[in-house]
Each structure stands twice: as structure tokens, then as C-alpha cells.
């Protein structure tokens, strides 16, 4: 009997969807441009990349995260002035906007500023001097800084003419009440706040996968002990515990000791949710056929856990980690803002926002709130990137 012919009005793409029976064919349809043979032989990371690059918003967020990573590694290169240097006579200098073109040609510059003390309030008042132009130079020389603790250099991304930074300073984000450059302090604050979030999440993910895997795979007494520990930690309110632990830290601790103490506090409290989720996955996976096959083939328990079971839910771990980084960053900012976390002379987003705690400072210098904008952009970029990575790493996401 002749096979029934499909109606002509059914689009070819809908016909392909109706005939899809294999996950590889679905991936091929989603990728569209990639060769069939390449899809069959491509490793998992390449398939993930092909899916991820179609998520344009996540791709843009990834570029923002890469820029943040560069700032974390090389804050001195992106700074213009020494972030700790005070200039009391230049307090609350407003933002100097960069002008890219001068007389129709690309020649970046900023206008100079003139300060005059108000005879009634005795406060310095600043205004733009449009008759004075300060040219912006790329890869200019300025103050010396260390690069990853390996060597020192004085090359900066932007600056002014060599030897002219003190005579003609540029304040891209204005100054605070002590005359310190907010742009440079924001660069160094990015290094501290973002690195605390990344290290805390790395430690919490490691603890969650390790302890959750042990609890779900072995069961028995280890499962009982770990689950009771998780219940105790989850029953405690997170914010009061953070505040209590950070307030208990000795005031004479150095900046480095306080940094690692806050990182450890955030990590030890943040691993419990992932640990319970990993336990639930392991309870299901340990009964699967591929786990039994791995046991019969002589694989060690360590290999079964980390090479066979954990990779099956990488997408969930990626999503949990990327969504946890913003939480850790906000937690550190919150604690430092209240004076319970990092304290001066340390520089973080929370420490910078301490300058905007009173209405008088905000009224005089609204640019002191700009570190809060950096927190918002970072949190949004990490959340969108996490969603994109989760969808790309999960072959069953549509």
C-alpha cells in the first residue's frame, strides 16, 4: 500500500520537529548551522558552547563578567590615582566627564575644575573650567603598583601627560570627603568584593558536593550526622548569624585576617542548600544501571562519585554557583556597609558605600552612591550568565 503523502501546506521545519526521536537531532536542529558530522563527534564542552553563544544576553553578560575578572586581577592598571592618597583641599570634587572629540577629531579630554570656598558655609564649591582642557592619554604612567604580587609597574590604562597627574588630576567619579579618587577606589573595591564572592562560593560548592555526596552515597551514620548538621545550620537565621560572627572578630585583626574570616563565615553558612540537593540526587543515582556497571567494572568509590555521578548534574551545580556569587557579594557589601565586615583602610563596595550613609553626604556628593550601581550591574550580569550556562549545559533544555 502506498505511503500516505504529507499535506503540502505543512512547513518543512514542523515536519522535522514531528520526526525528532533522538537528542542529537534536536541539538542539530537548535544549532542549525553546524555540520551533522561535527555534532556527532563534538565533545560536550563544544556542544555547550554552541548552545550558549545563541543566548545573546548571556553572552553580553559574560563579557561584563570577563571585564570584572580583569579588574579583579589588575585593579592598579585600570586606576588613575593612588586610592589611599588623601587630598583634603579637593574633597567632594564632582565627576569630570570625558569628552571623546575635540574640534571634530578623536582627542579625549576632560575640562579642568575650579574650587572656591563659600564665605558663608566655608565649604568648597567646584565648577567646570571650560577654558582649560586636560588631555587623556592611554597607557600613561602614574603611581606604582604591584601586578599579582610579582613585579611593580606604573603603566595605567588612562592617565594624563607624564608627570602631570598631581598638577592636573582627573577624577572620573569625583572624590570623597577626604579627597580620595572614587574611580580608583572603585577599581580596588571591585577586586575585594568580587574575590570574596568567588572564593566563598568555591568553598561552599566544594563542601556541598563533598558532604552531600557522602551523605547520599553512603547513607547510614554519615548521612545522619551530616543531615542533622545541615538542619542546625538552616534553622539559624543567616543575617543575625553573619552579624554576630563578624562582630565577634577581634578589632585588632589585620585586613587580610578579616578578609579570610568573612570569606570563611559566608562559605560555612552557604553550603547547606546545595548539600541537601546533592544528597537527593545521589539517592536516586546510586540505584541507576550505569553506577552498578561502574561498581562491577572495579571502579573505586571516589571515581564513581566524581567521574560518573557528579557530571550528570553539572548544569545544576553551575546554576547554583552563579546564583550564589551575587548573594555572597551582597552579603559582604551589607556587612561592610554596617561596619561589621571589612573596615578602612580596606577598600570594598561596602566600605565605599559607608561614605553615603548620611543624607548630607548624598546631597553634597550623589556620586558616592555609584558603588551601589556597580553592585547592581554585577549581580544582574552573574544571574543572566548563570541562566545561560544552565540552559547550555543541560541537553534537555529547550
Write up what this structure looks like.
- With 398 residues, the chain is of the alpha+beta class.
- The chain folds into 2 domains: 85-178, no CATH class; 185-393, Orthogonal Bundle (MetI-like fold).
- Helix content is 56%, strand content 12%.
- The protein contains 17 helices and 5 strands.
- It has helices spanning 12-19, 23-31, 36-41, 44-52, 56-73, 75-78, 182-218, 220-235, 238-247, 255-270, 272-285, 289-296, 301-309, 314-337, 349-353, 359-364, 370-393; strands spanning 99-102, 105-117, 124-135, 137-147, 151-159.
- Strands 1-2-3 form a 3-stranded antiparallel β-sheet, with no helix packed on it. A two-stranded antiparallel ribbon has the order 4-5.
- Helix 5 (56-73) crosses helix 7, helix 7 packs parallel to helix 11 (272-285) and helix 14 (314-337) packs antiparallel against helix 17.
- It is elongated and about 85 Å long.
Q: Fill in the CATH topology of the largest domain.
A: MetI-like fold
Write the H/E string, N to C.
Answer: HHHHHHEEEEEHHHHHHHHHHH
Shape: elongated
Structural class: alpha+beta
Task: Report the top-level CATH class of the largest domain.
Answer: Mainly Alpha
What summary fits the major beta sheet? 3 strands, antiparallel
What would the average pLDDT be, to the nearest integer? 81
Amino acid at each position: 500500500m502506498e505511503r500516505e503523502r504529507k499535506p503540502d501546506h505543512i512547513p518543512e521545519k514542523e515536519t522535522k520537529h514531528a520526526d525528532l526521536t533522538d537528542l542529537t537531532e534536536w541539538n542539530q536542529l537548535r544549532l542549525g548551522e553546524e555540520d551533522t558530522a561535527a555534532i556527532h563527534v563534538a565533545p560536550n564542552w563544544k556542544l555547550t558552547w554552541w548552545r550558549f553563544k545563541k543566548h545573546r544576553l548571556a553572552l553580553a553578560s559574560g563579557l561584563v563578567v570577563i571585564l570584572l575578572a580583569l579588574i579583579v586581577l589588575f585593579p592598579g592598571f585600570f586606576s588613575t590615582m593612588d586610592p589611599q592618597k588623601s587630598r583634603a583641599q579637593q574633597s567632594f570634587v564632582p565627576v569630570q566627564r570625558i569628552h571623546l572629540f575635540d574640534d571634530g577629531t578623536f582627542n579625549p579630554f576632560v575640562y579642568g575644575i575650579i574650587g572656591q570656598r563659600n564665605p558663608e558655609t566655608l565649604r568648597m564649591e567646584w565648577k567646570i573650567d571650560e577654558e582649560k582642557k586636560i588631555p587623556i592619554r592611554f597607557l600613561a604612567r602614574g603611581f606604582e603598583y604591584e601586578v599579582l604580587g610579582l613585579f611593580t609597574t606604573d603603566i595605567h590604562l588612562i592617565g594624563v601627560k607624564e608627570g602631570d597627574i598631581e598638577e592636573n588630576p582627573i577624577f572620573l567619579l569625583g572624590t570623597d570627603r577626604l579627597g580620595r579618587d572614587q574611580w580608583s577606589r572603585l577599581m580596588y573595591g571591585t577586586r575585594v568584593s568580587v574575590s570574596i564572592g568567588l572564593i566563598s562560593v568555591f568553598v561552599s560548592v566544594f563542601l556541598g558536593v563533598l558532604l552531600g555526596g557522602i551523605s547520599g552515597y553512603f547513607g547510614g551514620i554519615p548521612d545522619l550526622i551530616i543531615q542533622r548538621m545541615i538542619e542546625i545550620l538552616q534553622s539559624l537565621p543567616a543575617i543575625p548569624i553573619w552579624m554576630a560572627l563578624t562582630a565577634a572578630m577581634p578589632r585588632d585583626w589585620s585586613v587580610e585576617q578579616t578578609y579570610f574570616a568573612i570569606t570563611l563565615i559566608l562559605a560555612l553558612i552557604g553550603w547547606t542548600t546545595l548539600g541537601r540537593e546533592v544528597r537527593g540526587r545521589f539517592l536516586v543515582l546510586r540505584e541507576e544501571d550505569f553506577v552498578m556497571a561502574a561498581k562491577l567494572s572495579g571502579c573505586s568509590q571516589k571515581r564513581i562519585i566524581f567521574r560518573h555521578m557528579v557530571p550528570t548534574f553539572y548544569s545544576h551545580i553551575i546554576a547554583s554557583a552563579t546564583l550564589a556569587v551575587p548573594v555572597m557579594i551582597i552579603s559582604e557589601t551589607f556587612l561592610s556597609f554596617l561596619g561589621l565586615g571589612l573596615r578602612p583602610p580596606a577598600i570594598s563596595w561596602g566600605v565605599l558605600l559607608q561614605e553615603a550613609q548620611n543624607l548630607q553626604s548624598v546631597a553634597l556628593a550623589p556620586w558616592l552612591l555609584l558603588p551601589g550601581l556597580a553592585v547592581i550591574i554585577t549581580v544582574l550580569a552573574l544571574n543572566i550568565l548563570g541562566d545561560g550556562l544552565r540552559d547550555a549545559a543541560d541537553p534537555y533544555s529547550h
